[in-house]
Amino acid sequence: MKDQLFGKDLNELQEICMALGLPKYTGKQLAEWLYKKEISSIDEMSNLSKKAREMLNEKYEFGLTLPSKVQVSLDGTKKYLFPTLHNKFIETAMIPDEDRKTVCVSTQVGCKMGCLFCMTGKQGFQGQLTAGEIVNQIRSIKEYGDVSNIVYMGMGEPFDNLDAVLKSLDILTSEWGYAMSPRRITVSSIGIIPAMLRFLNESEAHLAISLHTPFDTERQKLMPVQIAYPIADVVREIRGWDFGRQRRVSFEYILFKGLNDTPLHIRELTKLLSGIRCRINLIRFHPVPGTPLESPDDETIHNFRDQLNDKDITTTIRASRGQDIYAACGLLSTKELIAAKE
Amino acid sequence: MARAEEYSRLEHQLHLVKVIDNVEIAPGVYLISWKQKVAFISGQVVKLAIDRLQPPRIYSICSGNLDEKISVLFNVKEDGYLTPRLAAAIPGDELLASDPYGSFHCDHAPAFWIAAGTGIAPFYSMFQSGLSDHKILIHGARTLNQFYFEDELEWALGNNYIRCCSREQSCNAFPGRITNYLLEKNHFPKDYKYYLCGKSLMVVEVRDLLIANGVPYENIFAEIYF
After folding, report:
1. H-helix or E-strand containing B153?
2. Out of A78, A137, A223, B215, which could bridge B210 as a Cys pair, Cβ 3.0 to 4.6 Å?
């Protein structure tokens, strides 16, 4: 099987060129063809000599993968299904909103974290995505040219595949790559502390942390990672970090009826996040099969938001999108995985 | 501008400890120990590293809280950085270990301990710490030589020690996975607690099965090996 050029960074492309006896600057030309122009084969790299293209073709392929399926919601949200190696599948959501088009990318096939409320976790862990497979989810969708924002909130835990995630961010934000502003990119994690600190150090993208409850025992039951990386430790590290003016940290909070939507939670959240310039995104829970949790009603959600805002924690409610196609990650790919196994 | 010193601060949570024992208890599975200097609660974990070149990994403590040593159980991953080096450690070698931490705690209340593979570690620690009364231990493994500490557990727990073996057969083990055993037994007391430890897919499948059979999720405690 040929190695893929798409997903390589500038250094790797230059090394490939030099190993083939081509000038080092050809690496820069390759990066331009891969990340700045809308071609999909090595043969279309018209400023390379025919011999250079032949040499590249011998060992490499361009490396784009088209989605195998797309579902379109009534609200315009799309969910793309991409095949990976060995009959696995990943999901990518494209969420249009007025003048913005946000793409939600996956970073792993399945997930190891086993959160109680998550469909992806039910697949178990199937494998890591490469940087190329992450960036391909943006490059190979129909809306590629119009993408305004990227969120790493699809299948998998980004900080459990940090090398590939950082490399994909490099490709997306470098001058030789897509030259996107890192301020248009948010990486969401459950808070694997060593990886989180490395991410903060080596990237400028925004950070979102899945919080879901400020109480240790409760979070442990929702998110087993709490045992290894307690949220209080995660928040303490965040509090010690200088995010500067432009970089943002936010906390994701899925509301579960009767579980984490009480005044006690508001009080504890206020204590936990005090002194951090941040935002809380409240998320309505859309039940997944086999999960005993439910969403509270709209009034409870609005009250929760208002009370946090009253305590000077900027809190918003994330609009639910693509409900008719289950845009929340995991369901479509799980169905495909089961079909593939059968 | 991010503060690099904050990043390196984590490294200071690791202390030098001296290996006092390192035993291969099954093919490719080791029990490595060092002297206990800080008290811990069984079920807690430690971060472990061989040097400061790679981030530490987290392991459940596998020894009793009254032992003079702290032990952890690990599988050697041939292509890994840490475990082949850990496997090669001999008494007197130095490792980097954090103080114990974590909240996967158990008391004397009736409970199921459900483990797969090296996920037996926290339960063996609890057993060694005198918490095995009113407990039913279900251990799943692919092969018969992966039932670590089985002689001791069988002697002490008797019928409350159940082995599930998915790839080999023995008169001592249920033939199949943990989920097969639970389904066949079809006994899910609602007033018991359920502690699960192992890889994510096992934990998620068992948790779903328990919930589907009426066990309140509040009674389920999971530790996943990341």
Report:
1. helix B150-157
2. B215
